[in-house]
Amino acid sequence: MKYTSRKKWILGSFIGLAAVIIAVVLFFRYEVDHILGGNTEVVDASQFKTLSGPLAITNTSILSTDSESMQVNQTVLIKDKKIESIGRDISIPDNYHVIDGTGQYLIPGLVDSHVHIKKSKNDLLLFVANGITHIGEMTGMKEHFQWSEEIKGGSLGPDIYIASPKITSLKGMRPTFRSWFEKRHQNYTTPLDGREAVRKYNSLGYDAIKISSDLSAEIYFAITDEAKKIGIPVIGHLPVGLGMEDLYKSGQSQLAHITSITQSIMYDFGGISSKNYKDFLDYLERNSDSIAIKLKEKNIVISSTVWLHGTIHKQGYNLPDFLKTINLEYMNPGWVEGSIVSRGWLPGNNSYEDPSNIDPESKRLSEVYWQNYVEAEHIMTRALLHNGVTITAGTDANGACGVIPGFSLHDELESLSEVGLSNAQILHTATLAPAKWMGSNAGKIEVGYKADLVLLKKNPLENIKNTRTINAVITNGKLLDRAVLDKILQSIKEANNKSRKINIDAFTN
Q1: pLDDT at residue 176 above 90?
Q2: What is the mean pLDDT of residues 126-139?
Q3: Phi-psi region of 388 (alpha: psi -120 to 50; beta: other; left: phi over 0)
Q4: What pLDDT is recorded for position 273?
Q5: Residues ≥6 apart with Cβ < 8 Å to 276
Q6: Which domains does the chain have, with CATH numbers?
Q7: pLDDT at residue 186, as a whole number
Q8: What SS3 state is found at 11?
Q9: Which of 157, 184, 409, 423 is the most buried (most CB within 10 A)?
């Protein structure tokens, strides 16, 4: 009898422990899904009425293939998702839908080369509503392949270039748990494992191998070597502790942020402070051209993400006012609110915010630091441009606080204007340059190219802010007019409001 009771007790304890473990796993899974945007109501994209079939956009101005000028009074014929004909005197077949482009400006669909969709499916619609017809997903997940196939099959959304989950090489339980629960980060701790990861992600169909800044040198070079053998590009960060010479010899084909370069130079310089920042900027000015020349020789593409770093100080010390300057209501509430596993964007929970009562002098020194940090990024950007390095406009949308999918690309283009790029150069970074890098037959208005196009009310060559004056978007064989684009935005706002746990009215205008 005692033996039977003891057996029942052990069995009951085992079942109880198993139930607790399952409950904990489900809890963490829910929390991870929340921060990734997976718990937000998904907008039904089939409700939006689009125009499909052969199209003729008449009497419009089109951006030249070098992005330098507008060619006036042009008609563009579109059939089977491609540009069929361009010219002034074109006969339009009877079965073509005619769109009057008088007084408007046609540009290639925009590309954001650095985003993180996570599980936030509504972001696909946000991109399209902002004229973005192609994105570079920098931490791929299985959902992204599914969504990409749905888009190819006719669902609304941009084309998606899908990089692998971010490869890290940290030790300890935290990165291990992150690999288990958050599939977009995967941890490998030996060079052999790193090589196997490259082969695995290549076989799964990823477009590139994404690496993290916390990779050890040994695993980094194992990954780049294996990728070179297979023929898949390695993209992402420069690991901490490695310098530009390591990057040049690695075979890495793309660097995720211009700031990755300036941080490496800062490290070589010995760091910057309020006392030596002028010396550092002089040092960078003297060396920026030689760095850019080497990057050009190695054909390394650089993603910009300039706007983000100009906002970090604002988020640090004036977060409520900063939040009012962005379209916060369109951001997936899961990422805004954060969860037990990760911070969000709001006061008291923002990773850039300094919650302490910082003294005026410390705040001033911090302002000096960030002003010069941003200036260093601008110096390096101009050197890259001057020496012909390929720059692609990227935002880190959904990957950093304050960066809203879709809207943030227009912020980025305006920041590139402040750096000193011409409007033609800026349009190139957001159209043909990233399209070439991704291997897409898009990015310019030319016969035979994919008809990913945006019809603007105002000329972006006169003012880059005019990329926001979107009247229609053509993507994947469908035309979405302004009324449809507005309905998409309204539907996302409503879905977000239904899914919120925290009211954000205090941070919206």
Answers
A1: no
A2: 97
A3: left
A4: 74
A5: none
A6: 47-104+460-495 (2.30.40.10), 110-438 (3.20.20.140)
A7: 82
A8: helix
A9: 409
Q: Would you state the structure tokens that stand for residue 242, as one six-digit string?
A: 């490695």
Asked if residues 320 and 506 have their Cβ atoms less than 8 Å apart, the reply is yes
pLDDT single digits (tens) 287-339: 999 999 999 999 999 999 999 999 998 898 889 999 999 999 999 999 999 98
Q: Cβ distance 499 to 40 under 8 Å?
A: yes
Contact 65, 444 (CB under 8 A): yes
Residue 259: burial class (beta carbons within 10 Å; 0-12, 13-18, 19+): buried
> What's the pLDDT score for residue 353?
85
Q: Enumerate the β-bridge partners of residue 475.
A: 478
Q: Using 50, 70 and 90 to split pLDDT, how confident is the model at 219?
A: very high
d(CA 128, CA 80): 19
Place of tokens 């490259």: 198
Residue 188: both structure tokens together? 């490998």
Taking only the tens place, the pLDDT of each residue in 82-122 is 999 999 989 999 999 999 999 999 999 999 999 999 999 99
> Given pLDDT bands bounded at 50, 70 and 90, which one contains residue 172?
low
- At 28 the pLDDT is 64
215, 169 contact by CB (below 8 A):
yes
The identity of residue 124, as a single letter, is L
For residues 213 and 236, give the distance between their C-alpha atoms in angstroms, rounded to a whole number.
8
Query: Which residues share a beta bridge with 4?
Result: none
Structure tokens that stand for 2 in this block: 């005692």
**306 by DSSP, 3-state: which?**
helix
- Non-local (6+) Cβ contacts of 24 within 8 A are none
- Torsion (CA) 300, 304, 308, 312 in degrees, nearest 10: 50
Residues 59/100, Cβ–Cβ less than 8 Å:
yes
Q: Which of 221, 268, 224 is nearest to 243 (CA)?
A: 268
The residues, ordered by sequence, that sit 6+ positions from 401 with a Cβ below 8 Å of its Cβ are 315, 344, 345, 350, 351, 352
Question: What's the average model confidence in pLDDT over 3-13?
Answer: 65
User: E strand or H helix at 245, and its extent?
Assistant: helix 244-250
